[in-house]
Amino acid sequence: MNKNLLKILICPKTKGSLIYDRKNQELISKKAGLAYPIENGIPIMLIEKARKIKK
Amino acid sequence: MKKISRSSKIFLTGHKGLVGNSLLNNLIDQGYHNIVTKTSKQLDLTDQLRVKKFFKSEKFDFVILAAARAGGIKANIDNKAQFIQKNLMIYLNVIRFSFENNIKNLIFFGTNCIYPKSSPQPIKEKYLLTGDLEESISYYAIAKISGLKLCQAFNKQFKTKYKVIIPPNLYGFNDNFNILTAHVLPALLFKFHNAKKKDLKSVDVWGNGKQTREFLYVEDLSGFIIYLMQNWAKSDNYFIDKTYINVGTGKETSIKELSLKIADIVRYKGKIIFDKNKPEGTPRKVLDVSLSKKYGWKAEHNLEEGLKKTYKKKFN
Q1: What is the domain partition of chain B in residue ranges?
Q2: Among A45, B3, B151, B248, whose Cα sits 20 to 30 Å from the Cα of A28?
Q3: Under an 8 A CB cutoff, do A8 and B127 touch?
Q4: pLDDT in tens, B66-125
Q5: What is the pTM of this model?
Q6: Residue A39: which domain range?
């Protein structure tokens, strides 16, 4: 996950920025309360595949 | 700005290929009657001098660059030099001489393999050049990216309207079905049809079947091009840098699912064997098509419908 890519990635739900969780291989949208999975180095930016997290 | 009308003089390159042939038929159906085509024997697009003279003498209003040296994964692996060299030469000649002959409007085709191999999915246009390319198709991809950047440069510097369309895997009946050089969908259609005909016990599919792809029926791509030509000025608001846009279904299918769908359509009841030792390419590829949707277009055919039409026309 390179820095430049992280700058342009947005949450599909809120269009807001994301936090990269390297350990769990997820991209967190605090505003949406969703964690998008990164599978084999590929971020999956689909709302239906995201894990709900406590806001 | 000059509009594209049904009497515009159009140069359609690559009219014998999957995209060009479909475009030619659709353009004629829609009443565009002033279309010029040339086979590669009649006009070698890699020959700079010939292309220069041709453009100077013909005075086109509009150019569609559908010509390319293309192929499936094995063709790319075996012909790296040819794939990058020929494509670079074709795109440079056609785009450059379009500009030098005052042609303001042009359409060029990219491909989904221009995006990084580990792109976030679905792939948005802005992910271009943010990461490494998949090695096997990187030579073809670099040539396509160069063509795209050439269009973008002319647009920014000289206010031309050179539009670049990025489709996913395309399929249709006028495709290459040679199982060594073709893309996955036509290769599998051929394999399953052949297995059914010869009553073979099994069909081998390259890779483990988990890779996903997006498949767009070529007639739908032609539908988009017609829509674009009729909504030309408006496209500036939806294309990135007024230059490029993804066009597709936005839906992904695994190679395993594709194999099962084809087996079903062909009515093949034998075994499907996934060969992990064969090349399988990028793990996942699906385009984000929200811009093209906002622009006002959407694909008509789903995969089953497109497969049935292709199979019927090619093999029945």
Answers
A1: 10-173+214-250+285-300
A2: B248
A3: yes
A4: 999 988 888 889 999 999 999 999 999 999 999 999 999 999 999 999 999 999 999 999
A5: 0.94
A6: 3-52
The CATH number of the domain holding residue A16 is 2.20.25.10
Which residues in chain A touch residue B283, judged by CB atoms under 8 angstroms apart?
Answer: 40, 42
Given a cut of 80, whether residue B2 has pLDDT beyond it is no
CB-based contact B137:B34 (threshold 8 Å): no
- Per CATH, the number for B10-173+214-250+285-300 is 3.40.50.720
- Residues of chain A whose beta carbon is less than 8 angstroms from a beta carbon of chain B are 2, 4-5, 8-9, 40-46
CA dihedral angle for residue B139, residue B115, residue B241, residue B83, rounded to 10 degrees: 20
Q: Residue A25 contacts by C-beta under 8 Å, 6 or more apart in sequence?
A: A37, A38, A39
Q: Determine the residue among A1, A4, A5, A44 to mutate to test chain B binding: the one whose Cβ has the most chain B Cβ atoms within 10 Å.
A: A5
